[in-house]
DNA sequence: CGGGATCCCCATAGATACTG
DNA sequence: CAGTATCTATGGGGATCCCG
């Protein structure tokens, strides 16, 4: 019988942070929401290569993790807005640090990652 | 990640950072190496639940990404040491920020992650 | 001691179609 | 416009065995 994957050692804080950010579009979504991109349709415009389903899945995860809140307006046409919670806002500086490090070392990183990441203009 | 289908948007720096840290044990490995745990056998002692193979895979990735350097001593018994490169050292503050955020919000996060695990499909 | 090679499971996420 | 259901498949990571 295949045993469940070895649980992550949650006593390591960085692993918790990685867990919360785990997902292909999460950091981008959080940054986008922080910048005012709050409606799903706008997010799709921001990330045209992400499917609606995946965005929904990740938004749901972000919501369940307490990083964003979801507001449904009972209108026609339907309107939904996502906002950062306090916890989500507290994560922004962390994303910002990651953002800066990634940008600062973009050249070296892209070279090293070149075999794994295809270039996409987006 | 799934770059063969849809490549990650590399114009987002945080995605680069996530790519580099992508892997179950990478942040722990980097922190360990920074603290002087440089030999594979020591890493296994530090992470007894990680298999040797996975540690090797992730160490190879870290090396390939330019975060660590590998030194092989042609001795008997064989000896190998990993050291942080400058790039790897520059990443330490980033991990530290993630570490602190994760620790600061441990309670809420563990609650949210546990709740997430409890949510099974109907 | 250190590092592969092989096999296998399942979580993430892509494509598509459908509902309200 | 927003969200869900089903299907598919890539690849991360676990177990195990074998080599220098």
Automatic annotation (TrEMBL), chains A, B:
Keywords: DNA-binding, Plasmid, Transcription, Transcription regulation
SUPFAM superfamilies for this protein: Winged helix' DNA-binding domain
Coiled coil start-end: none
Keyword Membrane: no
Matches recorded under InterPro entries: HTH_HxlR, WH-like_DNA-bd_sf, WH_DNA-bd_sf
Domain spans labelled HTH hxlR-type: 12-110
Highest taxon listed in the record's lineage: Bacteria
Protein name stated in the entry: Helix-turn-helix transcriptional regulator
Organism this protein belongs to: Hymenobacter volaticus
